[in-house]
Amino acid sequence: MGKALDGVRILDFTHVQSGPTCTQLLAWFGADVIKVERVGAGDITREQLRDIPDADSLYFTMLNGNKRSVTLDTKNPHGKRVLERMIRDCDVLVENFAPGALERMGFGWERIQTLNPRMIVASVKGFGPGPYEDCKVYENVAQCVGGAASTTGFDDGPPVVTGAQIGDSGTGLHLALGIVTALFQREHTGRGQKVLAAMQDGVLNLCRVKLRDQQRLDRTGVMKEYPQYPNDDFGDAVPRAGNASGGGQPGWILKCKGWETDPNAYIYFIAQAPVWERICKLIGREEWIGDPRYATPNSRLPHLKEIFAEIERWTMNRTKFDAMAVLNRYDIPCGPILSMKEIASDESLRTSGTIVEVEHPVRGKYLTVGNPIKLSDSPTEVTRSPLLGEHTDEVLAEFGYSNDEIRSLRVAGAI
Ligand code: CAO
Questions:
Q1: How confident is the model at residue 248, as a pLDDT?
Q2: At 364, is the secondary structure helix, strand, or coil?
Q3: Does the Cβ of 41 fall within 6 Å of ligand 1?
Q4: N or C end: fewer C-beta atoms under 10 angstroms in the chain?
């Protein structure tokens, strides 16, 4: 069976996390992703957070599967000529260099357009146009400037960054969508275009419910589903909401059996309005069903702390998995707090291909996250990340270089 992006050739100048997540996704959909790396060094993450001496790190291997690796010195005159040829014959160039690096290399948008008007040039940057456009940005900076940190954590503590890499992987996802959209438009126009995904914008897009809340707060001065209501004051900016659900259905994280010793013996519980009666019956508070203080979603809002404390008395007597099984029988939305250890051994995630074990020639077997997007006509087969420069000769031959030419490029230090 063919793949959705068969025939799309991608010149992948990405490094670290944001860009590589994007190109890995495109590779999973069948694009030929040629990762261009610095001669002798490669992507800096090959050696960051290493757990096995001299083997590519998990940081690298988990973000660069299904790609080919070419080494090329794009500052060497011979290397620049190779790059020109590659640009002429590829569909997309993806990069997440610091602002201006591509131009300093001599390959700004105008130059690339001259070489190949059909080329799509896709970039991750920290900020979009404006006062910070020249700044370098990493994950947690993006979380801070995109609105996530100020709205995450508890009211009595400092801002908190989340473990979900919404700045890096989140922006990589945004960029991937931009690229396939530009490829689709090129079908009609025949022209390439620039695609920009700024990390600040990507994080804000994922935090849009908090911008919604800012406007509600500006108008009414209160947000009744936030834990600050009814006893604490609201300031003029959206406060940190702890584990409140953030949606129209109240939720909170509740202790389960074993919480004293197991940091993940908790469950997320949603007191969804349509199943309120069942919740009351299950926890033995049937009198709440007819009580006007608890009967409607609005009347319950000032009592949420008390309600969740009462539900917690029920969850604390069960393991998170037992609680989940019972609550699901009553159609009550909930989810156990799963540790990474539990996720790593989850059979259903392995069966669905969301967690995959891959064999690597240097590091042996490693686990990686497979394609979270499943296409019925374009199944993903996850393959290992390439060794540094593993495909240099093979790729250059495909771009028309003879063995002798490849040898002299190597002597010149261009590859
Ligand atoms: N051959 C020759 N030179 C190469 C090369 C190659 N194949 N690949 C890269 N280089 C050069 C670049 O041209 C650049 O040189 P100049 O500074 O002389 O122009 C240099 O390597 C370093 O590139 P960089 O500035 O992108 O790298 P950095 O480590 O200094 O910064 C980062 C890293 C991530 C902060 C920066 O790239 C950035 O802000 N990127 C945009 C935002 C982003 O993606 N952040 C997410 C990072 S975590 O996923």
A1: 84
A2: strand
A3: no
A4: N
Q: What pLDDT score was predicted for residue 246?
A: 79
Distance CA 305, CA 320 (A): 20
Which residues, in sequence order, are CB contacts of 399 under 8 Å at separation 6+?
82, 85, 86, 89
Q: How far is CA 272 from CA 72, 239, 330, in A?
A: 56, 23, 12
Answer yes or no: are the C-beta atoms of 168 and 195 closer than 8 Å.
Answer: no
Cβ–Cβ < 8 Å for 197, 170: no
Q: How far is CA 98 from CA 103, 122, 138, 158, 236, in A?
A: 11, 13, 11, 29, 35
Q: How far is the CA of 14 from the centre of ligand 1 (A)?
A: 9
pLDDT of residue 245: 86
Is the link from the previous residue into 131 a cis peptide, with omega within 30 of 0?
A: no
Beta strands at 364-369 and 355-360: parallel, antiparallel or unpaired: antiparallel
Nearest to 67 by CA among 126, 15, 123: 15
> Is the beta carbon of 75 within 6 A of some atom in ligand 1?
yes
Helices (H), 152-303: 169-189, 199-206, 208-220, 276-282, 287-290, 297-300
Atom 12 of ligand 1, residue of closest alpha carbon? 101
Q: Whose CA is nearest to atom 23 of ligand 1?
A: 97
Q: For a substitution probing ligand 1, which of 47, 63, 97, 107 has the most ligand atoms within 8 Å of its CB?
A: 97
Quick one: which of 168, 182, 36 has its CA closest to 122?
182
203 lines ligand 1 (CB under 6 A): no
Q: What is the 8-class DSSP label of residue 387?
A: P
For residue 390, with 0-12 CB atoms within 10 Å meaning exposed, 13-18 middle and 19 or more buried, which class applies? middle
Indicate if 168 belongs to the active site: yes
The closest of 289, 291, 148 to 211, measured between CA atoms, is 148
- Full-model pTM: 0.96
Q: From atom 13 of ligand 1, which residue's Cα is the shortest distance away?
A: 101
